[in-house]
Amino acid sequence: MKTILVVCPTERDKREIVKAGIPSQCRVLYYEYDDQVLEKIICNRVGWLSYDFKPEHMLENIIAYAQQHAVDGIVYSEDYPGSILATIVAKKLGLVGPDPSVVIGHQHKYYSRLWQQQYVPEATPPFWLVDPRDMSSIDSIPMPVFLKPTKSFFSVFANEIHQRDELLSLMKHAQFPEGFLEQFNWFLTYGSFDLSANYLIAEELLRGEQCTIEGFVHQGKVELLGVTDSIMFPGTISFKRFEYPSCLPQSVQERMASIATTLMKQTGFDNGFFNIEFMYNPETDQIAIIEVNPRAVSQFADLYEKVDGVNSYQYLVQL
Q1: pLDDT on residue 155
Q2: Mind listing the domains of the chain with CATH numbers?
Q3: pTM for the whole thing?
Q4: Are 295 and 4 in contact (CB under 8 A)?
Q5: Which of 91, 214, 115 is nearest to 127 (CA)?
Q6: Mutual orientation of helices 301-308 and 11-19 as an angle, nearest 10°?
Q7: Pick from 147, 208, 177: which is nearest to 37 by CA?
Q8: Residue range 66-83: average pLDDT?
Q9: Beta bridge partners of 30
Q10: Fewer beta carbons within 10 angstroms: which end of the chain, N or C?
């Protein structure tokens, strides 16, 4: 029986793995992570990670644990730092998984936009790098825009900006504490990334119908699981619910699938799950990428199972 290790498991991971019948197919181990550590740093606006949470120390511990238990595969759905830790561990152990530098590049929202601009320009909205230490970095940015940190975390500090005064104010406040970014800035050493995560990114304000396309890449071949509509609370960017299958026209979904396939193949993402959030404007027929997430969407597993009869965790573990 094969052994899989779930890195930084969420409660949803544990629930869906059992529902999908994975424990009857292989031995499942969990390497736990206290995700409240990062949340406390954000909420308190101060604090640093203890030695136990230093990325190099965490990697050493996870690798030792995996070797001790003769792990055959690494599974993850947690965004940060789970997806990065898991892919680095998989690479160091010679196990299947995406290149960590590609995962990190997509998690750094500015570098991900640069890739999008290069490979799928038709789906990439205008964007600008904002240096919170340099007020002149916003001189050429037209209003309105959507402002967010280059390292996202549950949409914290993400805001619509309609006036330049708002932008100037948020430049000073919409930044994660240094202690929060410590892990990610260390991870950036795994690729050719010159910019730290201590920046913001301003993007053209998108309007329309939001959805997410999820899939995976196996040995260079992109497979798509489906398109799920995102229903927001009115006037907010907070999710109210998800609806699957999508109500968008089939032709629009096919265009999104083509964009997703091109982007993930061209950026070298392989042997892993991904999801891409899109905005479709029915008035202009424009499709725009909101962001790319190099991981599975655990929230959708139950929807797929109810509609298609297959829990996505079955694919995740097989991959």
Answers
A1: 82
A2: 3-97 (3.40.50.20), 126-204 (3.30.1490.20), 207-318 (3.30.470.20)
A3: 0.95
A4: no
A5: 115
A6: 20
A7: 177
A8: 96
A9: 6
A10: N
